[in-house]
Amino acid sequence: MAYNTGTSPTLAELITAKFIPQMFSLKVFDHTQSNLIVASRCNLEFRSILSKGSVVNIPFMSEIGATEVTPGTEPTPQDATGTPGSITINQWKESTIEVSDMSQIENMPDYLDKAAISISYAVLKAVDTEVGARFSALGGSTQANSDGDTMTDATILALMEYLDSGDVPDDGTRSFIGDPSMKVDMLGIDKFIRNDYVRQPVVATGQFGQIYNMSVFITNNLTASTTGNYGVMMHRDALGVVIQRNVRSQAVVQAWKFRTMLIADVIWGSNELRDTFGRSFYTRSS
């Protein structure tokens, strides 16, 4: 039987006349979200230092050498102080939604619960985006390949050689961060997918397995170049992030305006700490 024929009034006429009510689902689908992993792969230990003020100054040691011992000759002391680094707390982002008192009375679907998650995600994504924009400046602002290149084992090895040549510690805190196009490329690399090469299976939580003692992470939240995105291979000490205050979520009831505001905000700063502790590359597509 056709949808709207055979009777008078027709089904469409009954719907128009409101004899057949429209029902709304109580299930609300959340918006899509990127894997926010960039900031978490940086050095976060300075967050406990700064409770007040706007700048964290970080002292660095410089390498000193050994000299020939000459009996009867006093040794010359060396200066082991290096050029200090700093992180300025100059980022403050917020995300806000509102809902009227009537909307709450009339039992909206789980909008408020989903919205609270959404605004927290929004400010955390802002942190991830700001930190990820620093990838392209690492390694003297030079990339290891050409824009739009397919990720290959040779490129991975060249990036690893760059870190190793700069005495970057291979202590398990190196990360290899790319986008979905890199993920597809790496699935074609035997050393990444074969059980006799990898020590941990591919997982679906942003972390995408390991290669050469490095965790591999996939995210859509990278800075775009012309064709691809800027990915990075880096040690955690390449970039520093200070979150002065964790995400603050609050509900502000404005009775005089007959509404409730849900507000999330975060204060943070980031900076490059060791330029040679990371190098960026281009992914195949953005």
Describe the protein in words.
The protein is of the alpha+beta class. Helices cover 21% and strands 26% of the residues. It has one domain (39-58, 91-282). The protein contains 7 helices and 10 strands. It starts with 10 loop residues before the first helix and ends with a strand.
Summarize the structure.
By secondary structure, the chain is α+β, with helices and mostly antiparallel strands.
Oligomer state of the chains in this structure: single chain
Rg value: 27 Å
| Count of beta strands | 10
Helical element count? 7
Walk across the major sheet and give the strand order. Answer: 5-6-4-7-10
Distance between the termini: 48 Å
What percent of residues are in strands? Answer: 25-35%
Portion in helices: 10-25%
Enumerate the spans where pLDDT stays under 50 for 5 or more consecutive residues. Answer: 24-33, 201-205
The sequence of SSEs as H and E is HEEEHHHHEHHEEEEEE
Shape: flat
The helix/strand class is alpha+beta
Main beta-sheet strand count, sense and barrel state: 5 strands, mixed
| Average of per-residue pLDDT values | 81
Total tally of structural domains:
1
